[in-house]
Amino acid sequence: MEAENQGDEINCKITLIGETNVGKTSLIQQYVNNIFDPNYITTIGGDQLIKPIISKNKKLNLNIWDTAGQERFRSINKIFIKNSKIVLLVYDITNKESFTKIVKYWYPKVINLLGKDIVIGLAANKCDLYENEKVNYEEVKNFAEENNIIFKETSAMDHDSIENFFNELIDIFLEKNKDSICDKTINLSSTSIESKTNNSCC
C-alpha cells in the first residue's frame, strides 16, 4: 500500500462497505457535508464524494466511495474497492445479520482484493438506537482485535465522533506511508479547502 502523490496533494481513496441500510451514505454525508437525513435513497452501484482536508500538515484529497450493499451489486463492488487505501466496514447494531456478513463476506473480500496491509476500520453504526442492539459488543471487539481493525461505535447524527473516526484512520494511513510520501508539508496559513461532490468513477 503506497500513497499516491499528485502535485502538492496526496490522493487517498476511502471505501465504505457493508450491507444495505446500515447507514453508509448517512456516515459519508455527515462527514463530508455535516448533514443528517434519515430518508436517504438506497445507493445504486456506487457513489463518490470528494473532501479535501489537511492532516499532519499534509494536504489530502479524499475520494470517498459509497457502495451498494444489495447482493445483486456485489459482482461490481470489487471495482469500487480496488485501489482503496482505507476501507471502512459498516454494520447496524440493530441488525445481527449485517455484522455476520462483515465477518463472513465483506472482510474476507477486502483482504482478498487488497491484502492485509490496508487500513481497515469497523463502524458499529446507529449506536443512538442502543436499546434495540442485537449484536454482541464483545464479539465485535474480539473480531476487530484479532484482525487489527480499528473499531468504533458511530451514529450518523453525531458529526464530531464520525470526523474523529475518519481522522484516526487517515492518521494511520499517513503513518503507514510516511516513507513513500514526499515532503508535502504545507503552510496552513495560506491554504483553504472546500468539499465538493463528484459522481465519476476513479
Fourth CATH level, the homologous superfamily: P-loop containing nucleotide triphosphate hydrolases
Rg is 16 Å
Secondary-structure content class = alpha/beta
Can you tell me the overall shape?
globular
The CATH architecture category equals 3-Layer(aba) Sandwich
The total of helices stands at: 5
Helicity level: 25-40%
- Total domains, how many? 1
Explain this structure to me?
With 202 residues, this protein is an alpha/beta fold. It has a single domain (4-186), classed as P-loop containing nucleotide triphosphate hydrolases (Rossmann fold), CATH 3.40.50. Helices cover 32% and strands 26% of the residues. The protein is built from 5 helices and 8 strands. Strands 1, 2, 3, 4, 5, 6, 7 and 8 form an 8-stranded mixed beta sheet that branches. Helix 4 links the parallel strand 6 and strand 7. The longest helix is centred in the middle third of the chain and has 19 residues, at 96-114. The protein starts with a strand and ends in a 5-residue tail after the last strand. The model is unreliable at 185-202 (pLDDT under 50).
Summarize the structure.
The protein is of the alpha/beta class and 202 residues long. Helix content is 32%, strand content 26%.
Layout of helices and strands, plus pairs?
Elements: E1 4-6, E2 9-17, H1 24-33, E3 46-55, E4 58-67, H2 74-81, E5 86-92, H3 96-114, E6 119-125, H4 137-146, E7 150-153, H5 159-176, E8 196-197
Parallel strand pairs: 2-4, 2-5, 5-6, 6-7
Antiparallel strand pairs: 1-2, 3-4, 3-8
